[in-house]
């Protein structure tokens, strides 16, 4: 298992971690198999998302803000937990020719809802 440390800079943000994931796969030495990417936090997630239009990141955060409106909740950072509950904490992707297989417009992202913080992203690379 490999651990990546990702520093976030804002309360809510979408951070492209594609390069770090691809480098970790190369470092593993696996040419063909799968990689599981896990975010062990309840106020952050990992997703596949559009990689060519940066305005979509703002749109995603805006949509989640609309789904979980600002109001008084019982828990101090409930909004961050509630937003994260709509997304995934893990991804499993194919590795071929020592590279992560992604669609033309796909990237791998960490989504922060309670930053700024240093987040962990765990990877398990498995050869077939």
From TrEMBL:
Taxonomy of the source species: Bacteria, Pseudomonadati, Campylobacterota, Epsilonproteobacteria, Nautiliales
Pfam family, one: YjbQ
Record-stated family: Belongs to the UPF0047 family.
UniProt-recorded name of the protein: YjbQ family protein
Domain of life: Bacteria
Naturally occurring in which organism (per UniProt): Caminibacter mediatlanticus TB-2
InterPro entries assigned to the protein according to its UniProt record, in alphabetical order: UPF0047_YjbQ-like, YjbQ-like_sf
NCBIfam families to which the protein is assigned, alphabetical: TIGR00149_YjbQ
Coiled-coil ranges from the UniProt annotation: none
